[in-house]
Amino acid sequence: MSLETTARAWTIGLWIAVSLSLLAWVWAGYPWPICLLAVLPLLAPLHGLMRGRRHTYAWATLFAVPYLAFALTELLANPAARWVAALSLVLVFAWFCTMILFLRASRAHRE
Length: 111
Known about the structure:
mainly alpha
C-alpha cells in the first residue's frame, strides 16, 4: 500500500473520529443541537476527501483551523470540558497532519 493510500485512509478515519468527538461535547454539557451544528460543516469536504482530490485536501487543511482554535480555547478556559477538548484537539491535529501527508505523498507520486 502506498503512502498516498495510507494517508487517505487515515484522513477518512480521523474525519469520522473528529465528527464523533464533536458529538461527544454533549457529555461536557453542550446542547446536542450545537454539537450537531458543529459537525455539519465537516460534511463539505467529505466527498472530495473520499475521492482523493488534492484541491479538497488543500482547502480542508484550512477548514480544520477553527476546530483547532475551538478545542484549544475550551481546553484552557473550560475545566468541565477538558477531557473532551483534549480529545478533540488531538484528533483535529492528527486529521490536519494526515491531510498534509496526503498532499506531500500525492505530489511526489505525480512528479
